[in-house]
Amino acid sequence: MIKTKGYAAMAAKAALGPFSFDRRERRENDVVIDIKYCGICHSAIHQVRDERGGSIFPMVPGHEIAGVVASIGGKVTKFKAGDKVGVGCFVDSCRKCPECRSGIEQYCGEGLVLTYNGREHDGTPTFGGYSESIVVDENYVLRMPDDLPLAACAPLLCAGITLYSPLMHWQAGPGKKVAIIGLGGLGHMGVKLAHALGAETTVLSQSLKKQSDGKRLGADHFHATSDPQTFARLQRYFDLIINTVSAEMDWNQYLGLLKVDGSMVVVGAPEKQIPIGAFPLIMGRRSLAGSAIGGIQETQEMLDFCGKRNVVSDIEITPIQKVNEAYERVLKSDVRYRFVIDMASLKAS
Ligand SMILES: [Zn+2]
Ligand SMILES: [Zn+2]
Fold it and tell me: Over the stretch 274-299, which tens digit does the pLDDT of each residue have?
């Protein structure tokens, strides 16, 4: 076993603190990664607080992992020591089901192994990226862009792919009008990526507070959803709306902003059930859909695209000792736009 230092929550709602644990011994297909940075994703806060049930403790969160290959197993062919690599939301899947075979492992129905708060196929709990190292099968390791700062690339592994995958699936590009609801960790990646893909990009935000930021990130238009005029003005305007917001809102109003055949895609996760009227869907042949992260191949495509087009996340770097404070600030949306933990700070713990 490989002795590893990290930060864990020992029970639901407990603050995170220093924690030592064992990583598995490297197998022949494994890559051992020295973790340099790990993004703080909103979903970790829900899991640490066990808000959706079934959380496994102790829990070492973190699934936006960026680091450098320390060593490789004898059968590893894709990576070598010193390579800049990343690990996203899952570290294994069943590899046999139709979804795994067609490269959409994130929808594996048989045995998706989440990077943390999950279990390996042998039942061992998984521990995530708030730690000094991780051991992962090379088929679930990503190559990070060489010429971009590694810290700012970490959030691409969850926030980035969460937006890239629906943008690609619903063919955002030149001539398409795309709206992103909410300008937070997910939304800001949506704006950057939709803009880089060549779509006309609009932010729909509660107020105009972040307007200048939105434009700087690549938005062509920015509208306040607190202004009823916004909904009157933009009727039947968009080909695609991506909803990154988990707060309550009137979804039927937003469906009205779609053109005929337009789609609204949910990537945020509201806690309450959402009342949807049939007419906004029927009268316009509109679709309401959902989307979760992306498969390994698509995540690699996204990273390569970001490398070519210079797309990174806007980040604030924090030492691991301030992770609990960072969580509080994430809950208050007081970060522009993603916290990334500098894992070198672990040595001081
Ligand atoms: Zn995430
Ligand atoms: Zn599968």
Answer: 899 999 999 999 999 999 999 999 99
pLDDT tens column, 96-121 = 999 999 999 999 988 899 999 999 99
**Element (H or E) spanning 165, and its range?**
helix 159-169
Q: Are 193 and 164 in contact (CB under 8 A)?
A: yes
Q: What's the whole-model pTM score?
A: 0.97
Edge-first strand listing for the sheet containing 258-266: 221-224, 200-205, 177-181, 238-243, 258-266, 287-290
Give residues with Cβ within 8 angstroms of 213, minimum separation 6: 183, 336
Between the CA of 84 and the centroid of ligand 1 the distance, in Å, is: 20
Is the Cβ–Cβ distance between 295 and 164 less than 8 Å? no
Q: Which residues surround ligand 2, an ion (CB under 5 A)?
A: 93-94, 97, 100, 108, 110
Cα 281 from Cα 276, distance rounded (Å): 9
Tell me how far apart the alpha carbons of residues 162 and 156 are, in angstroms, rounded to a whole number.
9
E-strand ranges in the chain read: 2-8, 17-23, 30-39, 65-72, 84-87, 90-92, 113-114, 133-137, 142-143, 177-181, 200-205, 221-224, 238-243, 258-266, 287-290, 315-319, 338-342
Residue-wise pLDDT for 140-174, tens only, equals 999 999 999 999 999 999 999 999 999 999 999 99
Cα of 24 to ligand 1 centre, how many Å?
24
User: Which listed ligand is nearest to 293 at the C-alpha?
Assistant: 1
